[in-house]
Amino acid sequence: MGEIQKIRTGRHCVFVMHVHLVFVTKFRHKVFTGAHLTRMEEIMRSVCADFECELVEFNGEDNHVHLLVNFPPKVAVTKLVNSLKGVSSRRLRQEFPDLVRHYWRANKIWSGSYFAGTVAGTVGGAPLPVVKQYIEQQNRPV
Questions:
Q1: In a domain? residue 18
Q2: Where is the Transposase IS200-like domain (predicted)?
Q3: Distance between terminal CA atoms of the chain?
Q4: Is the pLDDT score of 119 beyond 80?
Q5: Do the domain assignments include residue 141?
């Protein structure tokens, strides 16, 4: 069984649940560089760990990111998303002051919306290896 197919156990349950998340920048501005994405991955891994989740895959481009997250049933995806977007936005704006010029009106990096899709192995959706491969193949800006 592959690493991403690991069955996890909780106090009263056994589970394998993954969600594919996509966040886009506010106004679809092309603002992220490789350095931004590298730091963002670290921040998002930390947030996931706080929720007892695992960030299985992360990748992105200049105006969006993809995440594949293994999460326990006790985690509400909306709460995880709000924390991922809020913490990453705040920390990136603090650590990379150059981002402020893109968001001088709306003090946010992310659009208010997001995509969340189930991955096969949970309830339905695309097979996990296909989603993992798709995220791995996203091009990072130079």
A1: yes
A2: 14-138
A3: 35
A4: no
A5: no
Can you tell me which residue has the tokens 């293994």? 70
The confidence score (pLDDT) of residue 84 equals: 98
Here the CATH number for the domain that contains residue 80 is 3.30.70.1290
Q: Please state, in angstroms and rounded to a whole number, the distance separating the CA atoms of residues 65 and 71.
A: 18
Give the per-residue pLDDT at 134.
Answer: 67
CB 20 within 8 A of CB 67: yes
Burial of residue 55, with CB atoms counted within 10 A of its CB: 0-12 exposed, 13-18 middle, 19 or more buried: buried
Please name the residue that has the structure tokens 């192995």.
121
**Residues 24-37: tens digit of each pLDDT:** 998 888 999 999 99
* Inter-residue contact 121 to 18 (CB < 8 Å): yes
Say how far residue 30 (Cα) sits from the centre of its chain. Answer: 17
Q: Which tokens hold the place of 107? A: 């003090």
Domain count for the chain, please give it: 1
Domain-embedded: residue 14: yes
Residue-range definition of the domain harbouring residue 104? 3-136
Q: What is the DSSP letter of 104?
A: S
